[in-house]
Amino acid sequence: MTSTTTWNVYLSGEIHTDWRETIAAACAARKLPVAFSAPVTDHEASDDCGVAILGAEPNKFWHDRKGAQLNAIRTRTLLEKADVVVVRFGEKYRQWNAAFDAGYAAALGKPLIILHGPDHAHALKEVDAAALAVAETPEQVAALLAYAVTGRLDG
Amino acid sequence: MTSTTTWNVYLSGEIHTDWRETIAAACAARKLPVAFSAPVTDHEASDDCGVAILGAEPNKFWHDRKGAQLNAIRTRTLLEKADVVVVRFGEKYRQWNAAFDAGYAAALGKPLIILHGPDHAHALKEVDAAALAVAETPEQVAALLAYAVTGRLDG
Amino acid sequence: MTSTTTWNVYLSGEIHTDWRETIAAACAARKLPVAFSAPVTDHEASDDCGVAILGAEPNKFWHDRKGAQLNAIRTRTLLEKADVVVVRFGEKYRQWNAAFDAGYAAALGKPLIILHGPDHAHALKEVDAAALAVAETPEQVAALLAYAVTGRLDG
Amino acid sequence: MTSTTTWNVYLSGEIHTDWRETIAAACAARKLPVAFSAPVTDHEASDDCGVAILGAEPNKFWHDRKGAQLNAIRTRTLLEKADVVVVRFGEKYRQWNAAFDAGYAAALGKPLIILHGPDHAHALKEVDAAALAVAETPEQVAALLAYAVTGRLDG
Amino acid sequence: MTSTTTWNVYLSGEIHTDWRETIAAACAARKLPVAFSAPVTDHEASDDCGVAILGAEPNKFWHDRKGAQLNAIRTRTLLEKADVVVVRFGEKYRQWNAAFDAGYAAALGKPLIILHGPDHAHALKEVDAAALAVAETPEQVAALLAYAVTGRLDG
Amino acid sequence: MTSTTTWNVYLSGEIHTDWRETIAAACAARKLPVAFSAPVTDHEASDDCGVAILGAEPNKFWHDRKGAQLNAIRTRTLLEKADVVVVRFGEKYRQWNAAFDAGYAAALGKPLIILHGPDHAHALKEVDAAALAVAETPEQVAALLAYAVTGRLDG
Amino acid sequence: MTSTTTWNVYLSGEIHTDWRETIAAACAARKLPVAFSAPVTDHEASDDCGVAILGAEPNKFWHDRKGAQLNAIRTRTLLEKADVVVVRFGEKYRQWNAAFDAGYAAALGKPLIILHGPDHAHALKEVDAAALAVAETPEQVAALLAYAVTGRLDG
Amino acid sequence: MTSTTTWNVYLSGEIHTDWRETIAAACAARKLPVAFSAPVTDHEASDDCGVAILGAEPNKFWHDRKGAQLNAIRTRTLLEKADVVVVRFGEKYRQWNAAFDAGYAAALGKPLIILHGPDHAHALKEVDAAALAVAETPEQVAALLAYAVTGRLDG
């Protein structure tokens, strides 16, 4: 009994590799009824959007605040609309916003998939423990989504 | 005043007989605006999906856990989207996941229909008591849905 | 700024006059984007649906229970989906289910419109006090909906 | 395993007989940890409180509205705090506020007990169908509460 | 990863200038998938709708009440459906309903954008502090929405 | 049936007269089980708390933001804990935070009492329409609370 | 930083062994601030409470329904009040009400501990997958609670 | 108007310095009615609790999972009970669980205070943007709490 509803999947976290496109392409190849959304993935825009639109701030703290709050308009709206939330932790940076999004999604009761390499397993154990799946590759995430959406396990 | 909205009906529980198809066919024959969804009904896929996608586990407990959590991505998403939840208890097996789904649906306030033979009536009394209807056959479920959706009692 | 979304309006209460059709026709004449839904308005079907579908009950109390619970599958689903709930109290009968629906809708925070003649005003004061409008005629309800949906006052 | 928490029980509905005192006395005799609350049971005060405190209204409709809204401050606060809600329907009057309270409590997911004589069974079938118990006497309600609170069935 | 879902944006507050049309035009020029809604912006209709539809009231207080409650049918329905809420404070009048809507939206967890001139900054500090953005011009609001919806910062 | 639970009442709004003390004294004189809470009523502290504790801000906008957010820690916590919310509008200032609190309380479903002089009636009609009582004097508020809490109308 | 709040723990499921007393004694020995509650554990009372209090039913189905609904008054009230829910599956019977309670608790977001022997692991995998701990002995449950409540791991 | 209710404050995050004790001591010196709670702050216990209580796991991933889920029993229970949540980010480690807790608290609508040194300001901007206060020292947090709880700004 194949669900024909479109599933909304929010892809949070790391923005320096093409993991989102990999997942999207692998789902498109399977013709899955999945619509993806994501935070702003242009790092510079994400940092500077606040002052670019609302005016400059000499103090870096408020420069950052203005931008982070604009980003939250997008992030929270899309995260609330999502059926499933995927959060990827990459190799670099603190990525606290990724963990924040994971906590936010968990508190909303969204099914959560965490994607990271084995090196981060211990540091992410509290986050992983809130997830319904912990994957190591984008291909696994696509396979997970295919299974969840179609109810069938690929050949 | 006939509702024209599509009703989402989630068909939880027993996966070894064709009761879902019977209900769906009986609703299709009545041209009801009903969309059905269901958990994964391929028993083997349901057991092994976790390790098939995310890697083998030597310990059966974690083998099962990985699979059960993948199934939950599908189950909870579809159950949350459902307007009405039908849970069938068959003749065999423990079927604790069916009872779990019934409890989950009840706590979400979803209208609940339980489907089982008369032999299970006493053992299922707490579950039946949370339901708005207790049916014995898939045909009754289809008739119930027809009545709920169209507001008319057939011939 | 005219809203183009369809508004779902649930018409609860009295089932022995054609007030629902009057409202629907008056809204259709105004080409409002409103979709109506209603409980089962065939009194006999509403009383007997339970035993007709699920089997006879010698005890009238359980005969009624079976039917009332089937009706609740329809009622609660449509009431939850509604943007606005209208409840009409007619001249006859106890109409406790109408008042029950009004309380249910109020607790869900649905905008509530109560429709009744002036004779019932005192007896309905607690119900009216939970409403955003108290109308005396179906035409007033249609005018209210037109105003709420289009944001414009006719004529 | 006897619960020692106090249970809050809201006694809604009919205000012309001493059914509340009967239940309270029967629970006190059993030394149950139950605290009762109720709407205003002085009919005249309940009708006139609004204008008595906030100033006269020449129009009866607004006289009633002012009073009904004051009553709602009490009713909703106590109903929200309640663990269990009992609603009694007496022999006389329309009692739409009783049915309204039952619907309100049902939508909040409160365990609901309905108390009425057998004559009203058919007219109250939709309300009864939302309840976990339908009793005919205050003594039965006290016995129900004793069972729910202590987990023991009296000799 | 461009979201293709339509975003519902509710434009609350000041009704004496064309700021809503300015935002809508600027979003239309960018071809954004945004649908706008608004309270009734015809001041006279907003004041008199209640008595026009439901009958005259000699007492101004109840004249106003009837109208304000009709307006609330529209306002709350659209505000609940909104993904993002924008509230504008103009130069004149008390505009308490604008601040009320901002509080209402904040309690619902809606992303909130406040639009006002610099003169009101101190008086609006509690309201601004609940917002994700504080803009001074409609053009800024359009730019904010473009960023939130497309995830891209305009040239 | 007198409720013995303590009622939590949050007194929001105007901070330049002693209306809170008047209500509290009038309730104390009646020995009501009511506990009052309030926002910070020291105007200067309320304006400057942010910079006093967290460090100076040269920009007035962020000076205000820091303070307003500290105030929100208190306000939202107490407002969420309240059973009943009273909001007073005085003669002076914009008082947008009062209207914001009223909207916030309304969206949370808190019983709302608005207190203001007759001059503000028209400007506050949308706010009043969300309230269960509109009072003109603190004495009326105390009388309302006495009635709601004890269920008895004073001699 | 030891929490001094009392934790409410609901002990659902199997009623034919003394596992509840074992957990309670082990927690008492550790002087933990934990209050336990449970469903009715007298099997006969649990089956017959409905008819004993509300009158006999010739039809076994309704005999069971009456009892199951009375039990639900207790069960749902205590389960809603619980901070943590423990569900035990024993060796015998279908125990569908245990699985139902687990699903109900999961949907409410209650931290869930499942207690069962290794033989049931596969059949319970969907239920276990919703739990934060799967224990095999009552002693383990007591140790878990001690850790969760005190934040210290016993010697 | 001094609130006399006890405020529950959850202190999440970094566990290698004595910041919790500093805040608690500073609040105790002010005699504030504040009760603190915290996650398990014994790093080793936090890592090994799962296997210590429920049995060893050869695979480190499941060793971590068991422990992380036990910790979640404590964390989520205390976080849900909290009125205010403070999250500290220290100098070392990834601290993803701190950011996860901040997201979790934000989605629950808890007033959030973030505590970190200036070096982390940019990396934490999304987290800070969800907070009502960003402090640099435990003393500032104590001063904030004193202000929020008493409504008075210390000399």
Automatic annotation (TrEMBL), chains A, B, C, D, E, F, G, H:
Organism domain of life: Bacteria
Pfam families associated with the record: Nuc_deoxyri_tr3
Gene3D superfamilies: 3.40.50.450
Family matches, as NCBIfam families: YtoQ_fam
Protein name (Swiss-Prot/TrEMBL): YtoQ family protein
Species of provenance: Rubrimonas cliftonensis
